[in-house]
């Protein structure tokens, strides 16, 4: 399939592609987007309901990474984190559509950025994100075509997730799970404390580490279940830090599958150093 352009839309329920660009064929990589005719029809971008749609929240500022561009646009090996993350999803044959939730003031920039990188011929849409990760995901879900069964939610800040993790999560949802989370065991012992504004914090207890997992993305869901959970959370003002948390909160069942150490989230400056090292190793050994 030839590379499709990156489309963006303006509102939660907009049905119009207000601007599109045609992406490069895979063999060519022109640096600029070309306009293609505006359409007022809902394009059937995810023709097969068997294919998963991926929503990529990328609207955060990256405060903990320090001053600079929004985190998703910061570079790793000369390529923005967001492009790495979208490519990681596009590499999966299970994924047919990627919806990127861009910084609200950076939609046009993200469209042209994605258009200037080859994306394996996948359909990519860009929507404005929101003030919280949860809101960004909700806005992204609104751009996923009804009829899609499997949706993956993947942080732009996890640029190096291996395709095997993406495939495994999608397969577990297709096999019937309502919500699937990739996770890894913890290296450190964890203590629950009574937080203090300053000074030593009293320890409450030490959870059994063997029962704890650090969760990653992409998290996979039955689309109607996730949309319903986000709707209830909006109505109740509930805020959680991951999408599976919403499913849990409303009584749904979440299962964990093995994640991968390279699916770590770039949060602080040291994470970027580690990501550069992982990428350099991949480029040296796999021609990545
Ligand atoms: N995110 C988003 N919309 C927001 C906030 C976060 O789409 N309003 C996205 C981020 O872009 C990131 C993912 O959610 O890809 C995970 O969030 P996090 O790692 O916390 O990123 P930031 O919020 O950008 O970083 P920080 O909390 O340090 O500001
Ligand atoms: Mg954040």
Automatic annotation (TrEMBL):
The record marks 64, 71 as: Transition state stabilizer. Its EC number is 2.7.7.60. Pathway: Isoprenoid biosynthesis; isopentenyl diphosphate biosynthesis via DXP pathway; isopentenyl diphosphate from 1-deoxy-D-xylulose 5-phosphate: step 2/6. Residues 1-33 are annotated as: Disordered. It is an enzyme of class 2 (transferase). InterPro entries: IspD (IPR001228), IspD/TarI (IPR034683), IspD/TarI_cytidylyltransf_bact (IPR050088), ISPD_synthase_CS (IPR018294), Nucleotide-diphossugar_trans (IPR029044). GO terms for molecular function: 2-C-methyl-D-erythritol 4-phosphate cytidylyltransferase activity. SUPFAM superfamilies: Nucleotide-diphospho-sugar transferases (SSF53448). Pfam families: IspD. Keywords: Isoprene biosynthesis, Nucleotidyltransferase, Transferase. It catalyses: 2-C-methyl-D-erythritol 4-phosphate + CTP + H(+) = 4-CDP-2-C-methyl-D-erythritol + diphosphate. The record marks 209, 265 as: Positions MEP for the nucleophilic attack. GO terms for biological process: isopentenyl diphosphate biosynthetic process, methylerythritol 4-phosphate pathway. HAMAP family: IspD. Catalyzes the formation of 4-diphosphocytidyl-2-C-methyl-D-erythritol from CTP and 2-C-methyl-D-erythritol 4-phosphate (MEP). Belongs to the IspD/TarI cytidylyltransferase family. IspD subfamily. This is 2-C-methyl-D-erythritol 4-phosphate cytidylyltransferase. It comes from Kitasatospora cineracea. The gene is ispD.
């Amino acid at each position: 399939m030839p590379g499709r352009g990156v489309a963006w839309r303006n509102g939660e329920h907009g049905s119009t592609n207000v601007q599109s660009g045609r992406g490069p064929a895979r063999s060519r990589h022109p640096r600029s987007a070309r306009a293609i005719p505006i359409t007022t029809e809902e394009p059937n971008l995810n023709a097969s309901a068997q294919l998963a749609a991926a929503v990529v929240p990328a609207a955060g500022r990256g405060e903990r990474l320090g001053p600079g561009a929004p985190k998703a646009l910061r570079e790793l090996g000369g390529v923005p984190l967001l492009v790495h993350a979208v490519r990681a999803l596009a590499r999966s044959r299970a994924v047919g559509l990627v919806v990127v939730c861009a910084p609200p003031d950076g939609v046009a920039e993200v469209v042209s950025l994605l258009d200037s990188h080859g994306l394996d011929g996948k359909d990519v849409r860009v929507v404005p994100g929101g003030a919280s990760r949860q809101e960004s995901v909700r806005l992204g879900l609104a751009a996923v075509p009804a009829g899609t069964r499997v949706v993956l939610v993947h942080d732009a800040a996890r640029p190096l997730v291996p395709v095997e993790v993406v495939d495994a999560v999608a397969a577990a949802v297709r096999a019937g799970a309502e919500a699937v989370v990739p996770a890894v065991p913890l290296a450190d012992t964890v203590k629950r404390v009574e937080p203090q504004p300053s000074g030593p914090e009293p320890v409450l207890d030490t959870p059994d580490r063997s029962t704890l997992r650090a969760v990653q993305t992409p998290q996979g869901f039955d689309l109607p279940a996730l949309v319903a959970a986000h709707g209830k959370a909006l109505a109740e003002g509930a805020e959680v830090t991951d999408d599976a948390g919403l499913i849990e909160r409303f009584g749904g069942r979440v299962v964990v599958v093995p994640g991968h150490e390279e699916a770590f989230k770039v949060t602080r400056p040291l994470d970027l150093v580690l990501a550069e090292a992982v990428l350099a190793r991949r480029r040296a050994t796999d021609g990545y």
